[in-house]
Amino acid sequence: MRIFVTGASGFVGKAVSKTLVKNHEIWAMARSQQSKDIVESIGAKAIECQLGNVTCENLQSCDVVIHCAAFVEEWGSEEQFWETNVIGTQQLIDIAKEAGVKRFIHISTEAVLFYGQHMRDVDESYPYPKTTPILYSRTKAAAEKRVMEENNDFFTTIVLRPRFIWGPEDKTIVPKIKEMVEQGKFVWVGGGYYQTSTVYIDNLVHAITLALTGGQGGKAYFITDNENQDMRDFLSKMLKTQGVVLPAKSVPRWLARLAAQMTEFIWRTLAIKKQPPLTRHAVYVMSSDCTLKIDRAQQDLGYTPIVSVSQGLKSMEKL
């Protein structure tokens, strides 16, 4: 197959491109010289374009689009989130259909359902919230709805919802926590004793590979390691692989949430562009249970994790 991948210089996009390039022709979106160098280093063909201005020529003779790119920051304007996550996705869908692409795999997130509440043992029937203060959640939900609505007999759309993606080459979770520890800013919220689903990067890549030919069009699928974790225990073990010991300091859940809400209000009121020290997104994620069922992925995709959590942690240990 000829497969077009967005976000191929990022954690997920790079991992899936490295795997698929062994058996497929990978064309990868490259927004900069740095992105171009990364995708070419893994054997993919760099296509110079960006979300919002992809052309039919960029997708010439492509069979599948794997859309991994997104605006995933904790802080930003509604316009920034909407422009990338919604408008960028819609434009890519429109061009993919025009170019004759047969299948569109959209990498979404369980956060599309999240507004700060506990989510315990939920499946894909769990409803979207009427509102959420988290711009990332709001815009990713709008994007995946559009993806599923575009499914038809000639254009198959599959939505994958991974939760808490982790593993070697992670550029977000581990580096950020390490930095916070080094600066003396890391604290647990409510002790950190919350249950969470996770997905190791190789397991997510495996699910994406299965979605190249499997799955029911117009549907969403949770993808996890199928091993729920205590967040405090899991993060402590993951950071320990990098030689980092997480401190025991904790703040009450209600206080952290109130502080984040007040901080965001001040930042928005004063139009401060720099990210605030506390955001509701980060605090809510760190103080909520989130465990997901993968029955639908097991049934429709034939998905079973290929790497256990213990094996994944072993792979992250420093040499």
Walk me through what this model shows.
Helix 1 crosses helix 6 (201-211). The protein contains eleven helices and 15 strands. The longest helix has 21 residues, at 78-98. It has a seven-stranded parallel beta sheet with strand order 3-2-1-4-5-7-12, sandwiched between helices. It has a domain at 2-170 and 198-226 and 291-306: 3-Layer(aba) Sandwich (Rossmann fold). It is globular, with a radius of gyration of 19 Å. The model has no long low-confidence stretch (mean pLDDT 95). It is 39% helix and 17% strand. It has 319 residues and is of the alpha/beta class.
Average pLDDT, rounded to a whole number, is: 95
CATH fold annotation of the domain at 2-170 and 198-226 and 291-306 = Rossmann fold
The proportion of residues forming helix, as a percent range, comes to 25-40%
- Largest pleated sheet: 7 strands, parallel
Strand line-up across the major sheet: 3-2-1-4-5-7-12
Computed over alpha carbons, the radius of gyration is 19 Å
Keywords:
alpha/beta; Rossmann fold; seven-stranded parallel beta sheet; 39% helix
What's the arrangement of secondary structure elements?
Layout: E1 2-6, H1 11-20, E2 25-30, H2 33-41, E3 45-48, E4 64-67, H3 78-98, E5 103-107, E6 119-122, H4 135-149, E7 156-162, E8 165-166, H5 173-182, E9 188-189, E10 195-196, E11 199-200, H6 201-211, E12 219-223, E13 229-230, H7 231-240, E14 250-251, H8 253-269, H9 280-285, E15 290-292, H10 295-300, H11 309-316
